[in-house]
Structure formats: structure tokens, C-alpha cells
Amino acid sequence: MEAHAPLWLTYTFLYLAAAVIAVPISRALGLGTIIGYLVAGMIIGPSGLKLVSNVQDILHFSEFGVVLMLFLIGLELQPSRLWSMRRPIFGVGSAQMLLCTAGLFAAGWLLGFDWHMALIAALGLALSSTAIALQSIAERNLMSTNSGKTSFAILLFQDVAAIPILALVPLLAVGQQAAQNDGNMLLEIGRTLAIIAAVIVGGRYLLRPVLRWIAQSDSREISTATALLLVVGIAYLMLQIGLSMALGAFLAGVLLADSEFRAELETDIEPFKGLLLGLFFIAVGMSIDFSVILSSPLAMLALVVIFLLIKSVVIYSLATVLRMPLQERPLFTLLLAQGGEFAFVVFSAAQAQGIVSPQHSSLLIGAVAISMVATPLMVAAMDRWLMPRFANLATGEDAPEELHEQQEASVLIAGFGRYGQIVTRVLLSQGIKAVILDHSVEMLQVAQNFGYRVFYGDATRQDLLRIAGAEKAEVMVIAVDDESQTNQIVKLVQQHFPHLKIVTRAKDVAHWFALRDMGVQYVDRELFDSSLQTAEKTLELMGYTPEDAQYVVTVFRAHNIELTNKMYEHRNDRETMLAVGRQGRDQLVEQMMRERQERQTQAQEAEQAPSSPYPHQPDDPQSHI
């Protein structure tokens, strides 16, 4: 009897095989992971080899990857920080939506389309892809930059704006449906606000006790299941009231951002986020209907060019008004000019309501999908050819003159942030000359205000390091706060300036492992020693003598360094590595407990010893109670 594999197993094999083949090839060509996923989807989808047919079901399921990504982003933002972003979110975000919608609506109306259809098309096309934009920003670690923060604020506002856009779709349909929905509008708004308030209150006062109770089980799989249940539950709740799953997940992440479970939740969810995001991009690639494109190629091309051009003009103008650094504007414009995944939902709903015809809906969805496929390609081309030339066009305060005169110094320092400033000041106090590079215009202005000479330039460029004196220097200090940029500088120095001794910072233990794998011997975790100093002061405030506090911290530091090296030996076996970490932690607790007991015993023996022949004041007996 012939056995047939279940459909879910067949599809899972196809997705994983397509991703494993396409993504490494795409990365090897310098196109990034997103292009690999999109191409894989186009190959196995209905317009390619027709290996997968139920694209919409897969697309809906894979949207959960975007939900997990927004949850992890929320974990990085404390409520106070989010509140501080309220102006860019509702100011810049609303400006982008209104201006892009107005420009697109005007274009559609001038082309002769019905105003209902023109408005829905404008609202849908004004949205941007949260997944692609945030993924590209995260890959470049640009979230802390002006363009990164502004992009995030706009994307977050778009998630919020998606709610009234969907509510508007039935109101633009036939009059009877509009009247019926209009009567329930206030009730829906009230229910929405009540659910959001319940999520905020529950996240603040109920989730943390539950997570503490789960943590007591000391079960890795239950902790992971709890993290997934939290995100799935909030997403389900948001869907029940017609809100964005991504918005609900982001809100939950913000509420847990300042909790003690943030790091564990992030670790548990990260692998699922990556896989589901990849599945989402594969589904987007499969959703492109090439039959519609081939039947109306000129119309499709015109639609893509017009909407990208209108959005690009609006967004670049917005960046100019905001005085965004010139070198950040191209990426900011390109990432927000593309269509967004939520446009699929808007156009599908509009078609169901009869506002948009099936042919026009296919054209709009195809245009959005093409823009999402083309954006990573355009970003890769921009990074390779446009950005080096574009940066040279900056004038005045936007881009200072790059280093062009040959320098000589014993030490090169890449990065003049808080970390690099301390290193620089110590070296200068000893009369050691250093050449400092930083590609942040704002940081150069700060350095000039304090009288430091910092050269403008990107330390990932070989020619710039050579001019800075890398061939004759002895030490290279890498003090940038970007993990990928740090790794890139390390590889560049090792390849072209192997005589340089590299001293670098690591963001965390995982980054420390990665740098050690690259052969770097002198790696310091950026917050390790400062955290120990804080712990030492805390012990003193708890009654420890300064000597005892210093001894405890010294022992802990030595033990932690030794433990990290032991964990590094098992870095490729996660379970063993975690077991070594837990064992080392327990050993330290037992060691310190034994030492405390020994000191107490010695103190008691000293009290019971015969009195000294020398006169002295007796101890107060109550002091030992």
C-alpha cells in the first residue's frame, strides 16, 4: 500500500528546502536574506513551479512572524521611552500618512478612477512594510539613529492607522452597509478602548506574577511555551476586536520591557520570530500573480513607478524638513516608499465590499508585492553604488570633510561614544597619541565642543584606515556600539592590517563568543565592570565593609571570567552551555556561603579566646545579637 505524506509535512519540507537553498545564495551575492526568501516563494508558488497553492492561508499564518518581531521590539522599549516618542509617532507618522494619501489620491482621481476606489487605493499604498523596513534597520543596527527612530515612529503609527482604515472600508461601500456600520461605530470604539485598557492593566499587574510562578518550575520548555502563549493570546484577543495583532504584541512587549523576564522572553521567542518572518517573505513571493502582470505589464509598471515616485518625493521632503542627516535620507526614503503587507488585507476587504474590482485588486496587490520584492534589491544596489557617492554630496554641518591627510599614531580608535571617550581620555592622560574615527555628525559636534580632535569617517573602509595610520599603528580599539559593524571592522583589520592588536567591546556574552570565534583575544563586555562597581557600592550600603565588598566583587569577577571561558568551550551545544552556566552559578553561591560561614566561625572563636594582657574596652555584648 502506497503511503502519502500529510500536506503539512510536504509544505514544511518545501519551505525549509527553498529557504536553505535560496537564502545562502542570495547572501553570497550580497542581496541579503529577504531577497532569498522572496525568490524562494516565487519559485515554489503558483506562478513558479506550482508546488504550493494555498498562498493566502500561508500568508495569514506567516504574519505571526511580524507579530513576534513587534513583540521583541516592544521588549526593547520601556514605557517612559515610548511616551517620549509620542510626538514623532503622532506628529511625523500622521504627516507621512496624510501627505502620501493625499498625493496618491490626487493621482488616482486625475487618472479618472472613482473617488471611492482612489481613496482606498491611496490609503493602502500609503502603508509601508513593517517587516522589511524594521528587518533592514535591525541588520544595519540603525534603530538608535535619527532615521531609525523616525522610521519606527512612522511604522508604529501606520499599525495604529490600519484600524480606522479597515473601519472605513465598509463605510465607503453601499449606503445601507454604511448606515448599519455607522450605527455601531461608537460601540466598536468603546470596546476597542476597553480591550486596550485591559491589556495594559493585565500586563502591568497580572502577567508578572504569572511569569514569576512559571519561572519557579525551572522548566525550559514551559518557559518557552509561556512566552509563545503570551504573544498568541494577545494576538488572538486583538483579532477578536478587529485590531492589529502586531499592535497588540508591541503593546505587550512594552509592558514587559522593564521586567526581570525581558531577557528570557527575548531568548525564547527569537528563533520562532526568525523562522516565521522567513515564511512570511516566502508567502509574499508566492502571492505575486504573474498572470495579471503579464496581461497588463504597462499598467503594472506605471502603477509601481507612480506610487513609488509619489511616496519617495513626500518622504524625502519630510526628511528634509526634519533636517535628517543627508547620508541617512536615501535609506529612510526607500524603506518607507514601498508598499506594506497590511495593504493585502485592505485591498482584499475592499474587493469583498465591491469598492475595488477583482482585476484592479490584483493589480494593486501585485504592485505592492513587486515593491516589496524590489526594495531589498534597491537597498543592496544603493549600499553598493549610491551611498558612497551620495555621502560626498553632503555639505556644511550635515557631513564634515572626511580624513584625507596621512596620520600617524600608536593607537587607532573607532567610535567616540561614551565608551570610546573614556578610553581616549585615559590614553591622553598618559600622553599616548590616538587617531579617532567616528561617522556620526552629531558625535563630531560634541567632540569639537569639548576640544577633542575626532576625524569623520567610516572605520569599515580600508582606504580610510590606511590614511588614519593603520599600517604603522600598534593597537586598534573598536568602540562602536554596532555588533555587525564591529565584526566587519575586525575582519577588515585581520585581513589587511594583521599586525594590529585588536581591543574591542562586546555587547553581551553572545557577541563575546562571536568575537572570540573570529580570533580576537582582547574582548571586554561593555557593561561588565561598571555593573560590578555598582554591585560593590550596593554591598557597602547593605553594611559590608569596603574591604569585604571589594573582595566579594573581585572573587565574582574572576569566577565569571573563568565561567564564561568554560561556556565558550560548549558554545555550539546550547543545552550543555546553559548547564555549565547554571552549575558555575551554583558553585559560586556555595563557595561564598562557605566563606561566610568560615568567617563567622573565626569571629566566634576570636570572641571566646582568652583576654589579651593589654588593657582594652570590652565589646558591647548586644552588638553580636
Strand proportion, as a percent range, falls in: under 5%
* Rg calculated over all Cα atoms: 29 Å
Oligomer state equals single chain
How would the global form be characterised? globular
Structural class: mainly alpha
Helix content: over 70%
Distance between the termini: 83 Å
| Tally of helical runs | 28
- Sheet bearing the most strands, described? 6 strands, parallel
How many E strands?
Answer: 6
Strand order of the largest sheet: 3-2-1-4-5-6
Which residue ranges are poorly predicted, with pLDDT under 50 across at least 5 consecutive positions?
174-183, 394-398, 611-625
Sum this structure up briefly.
Helix content is 70%, strand content 4%.
Description:
By secondary structure, the protein is mainly alpha-helical. The protein contains 28 helices and 6 strands. The protein has helices spanning 7-28, 33-44, 55-62, 64-75, 79-84, 86-110, 115-126, 130-139, 146-171, 175-183, 185-205, 207-215, 220-240, 245-255, 262-287, 290-295, 297-321, 329-337, 342-352, 358-391, 418-429, 441-449, 462-468, 483-496, 509-517, 528-541, 546-569, 574-608; strands spanning 411-414, 434-438, 455-456, 475-478, 501-506, 522-525. The chain has a 6-stranded parallel beta sheet with strand order 3-2-1-4-5-6, sandwiched between helices. The longest helix is centred in the C-terminal third of the chain and has 35 residues, at 574-608.
